[in-house]
Amino acid sequence: GENVEQHPSTLSVQEGDSAVIKCTYSDSASNYFPWYKQELGKGSQLIIDIRSNVGEKKDQRIAVTLNKTAKHFSLHITETQPEDSAVYFCATARANNAGNMLTFGGGTRLMVKP
Amino acid sequence: EPEVTQTPSHQVTQMGQEVILRCVPISNHLYFYWYRQILGQKVEFLVSFYNNEISEKSEIFDDQFSVERPDGSNFTLKIRSTKLEDSAMYFCATSRTGSHNSPLHFGNGTRLTVT
Fold it and tell me: Are the beta carbons of B108 and A51 separated by less than 8 Å?
């Protein structure tokens, strides 16, 4: 089955700096790559996703890049703010209209110091 | 923005007891899921549910687990005879359709502690 590895497990940056979180996956059939943000005591929220026919996607301060050949994808947050502090999860899924069965990475705790 | 609501937020139970975790999906969502996260481990897929039946389930989802939507609103996960290793955060998620164009919305989770 699919295996998703996420690094680093913790990341501390100064406010205004950039943060990069990387994930690798094993299943070449995976073609959907979402990123979720989980704030303390809350459920995970989708922040950005990318499909395998695209190499990069950007939404304001957040971007995701995908290298299908190398089977890795990354989350980039620029101009970090204290409210970006949270646990971030990457995930993968195969094309399947029967539902979204996601395989998650282990999570990255991002701390943005003011 | 509509939310997925889970109750209770924390459930403590003794080994061998049955527990029912409840989830109220977003109203126009048709696909429902349970995921769990054991402390220090990854979030794991348990089961997906559509049209009143299980669509997919993982190997974790054995005969001790069951899901149903008894009254058309609540989506429940039942663990028949809890074990210590069932202690985890259980997350309900829902999506409007089953495709990737319809992302998952997660609830805040139920922390299950089995003693």
Answer: no
